[in-house]
């Protein structure tokens, strides 16, 4: 992805007559009320973009040789590459403003403007590889495992991946991606708000309730401490529903449909991830401390 971004940067610089015009495009936003109106939902959208991988990162870090190895791998591999790629994307989009008179943020639309067949082919292959690699890591592995865990004897990881792929087509992603506002403020806002509630429950349970101590055997034992009521932790369900409603109840659903599910909650929609995280964390922590029975020390034996 980075190689492709550098190639597009070089091409755009050549079309613009150098890198100067890429840095010379004036800001249209400023620091007034208009800036903050876009900043917070954009920030929540960016967090929502990473919220999927942040929740299922154990699917990958479990293969690390040590805690130190996976920590350094994430610290060096994720923030640095994302920052560099975002910087290159801003420069390329700024260059498109200088060359074509309007910003072109979609790399496919930008590649279509070249008159070089080889360059167009390279750009499309780069976009294809980037789409496959990102989706497999961030959007396929986790739901495939989830579907498999629902019925492990009937649904394999491969079948779970196929189910995920079919559902991915049914949600019409090209319609969401066709409008940058719909993609950032609607799709990422909804995903971020709902996954923020999940993150809040996980943080509350693992860090605040259990103090990072888990009984690994009971994680896989029916009737163990994590079996709760018939396999359901009702506190987590209540916290998720409450946090989810507050986080995304007032969100705009364009371009899918007009209007908002709960218009009164519209002021909270711009802060969806933070609202979901905070609400579910506080509610789950409160319900757990009010209703849980006496604590049991983790077992040390095997299941």
TrEMBL record:
It comes from Streptomyces capoamus. This is Allantoin permease. It comes from the Bacteria. It is a multi-pass membrane protein. GO terms for cellular component: plasma membrane. Keywords: Membrane, Transmembrane, Transmembrane helix. InterPro entries: Pur-cyt_permease (IPR001248), Uracil/uridine/allantoin_perm (IPR045225). The lineage of its organism: Bacteria, Bacillati, Actinomycetota, Actinomycetes, Kitasatosporales. The keyword Transmembrane applies. Belongs to the purine-cytosine permease (2.A.39) family. It is found in: Membrane. Its main location: membrane. GO terms for molecular function: nucleobase transmembrane transporter activity. The keyword Magnesium does not apply. The chain crosses the membrane at residues 40-57, 78-100, 120-145, 157-177, 183-209, 230-251, 271-290.
């Amino acid at each position: 992805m980075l190689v492709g971004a550098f190639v597009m940067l070089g091409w755009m610089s050549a079309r613009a007559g150098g890198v100067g015009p890429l840095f010379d495009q004036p800001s249209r936003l400023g620091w007034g009320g208009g800036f903050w109106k876009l900043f917070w939902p954009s920030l929540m959208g960016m967090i929502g973009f990473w919220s999927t991988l942040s929740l299922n990162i154990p699917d990958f870090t479990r293969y690390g040789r040590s805690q130190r190895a996976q920590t350094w791998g994430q610290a060096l591999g994720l923030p640095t590459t994302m920052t560099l790629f975002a910087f290159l994307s801003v420069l390329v989009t700024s260059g498109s403003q200088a060359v074509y008179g309007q910003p072109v943020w979609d790399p496919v639309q930008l590649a279509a403007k070249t008159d070089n067949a080889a360059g167009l082919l390279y750009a499309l292959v780069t976009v294809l590889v980037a789409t496959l690699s990102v989706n497999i890591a961030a959007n396929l592995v986790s739901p495939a495992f989830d579907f498999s865990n629902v019925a492990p004897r009937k649904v394999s990881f491969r079948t779970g991946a196929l189910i995920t792929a079919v559902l991915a087509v049914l949600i019409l992603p090209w319609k969401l991606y066709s409008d940058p506002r719909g993609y950032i403020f609607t799709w990422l806002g909804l995903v971020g708000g709902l996954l923020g509630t999940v993150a809040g429950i996980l943080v509350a349970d693992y860090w605040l309730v259990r103090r990072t101590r888990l009984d690994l055997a009971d994680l896989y034992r029916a009737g163990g401490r994590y079996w709760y009521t018939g396999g359901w932790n009702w506190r987590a369900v209540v916290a998720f529903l409450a946090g989810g409603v507050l986080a995304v109840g007032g969100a705009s659903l364009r371009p899918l449909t007009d209007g908002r599910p709960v218009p009164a909650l519209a002021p909270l929609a711009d802060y969806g991830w933070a609202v979901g995280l905070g609400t579910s964390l506080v509610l789950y922590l409160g319900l757990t401390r009010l209703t849980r029975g006496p604590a049991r020390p983790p077992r040390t034996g095997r299941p």
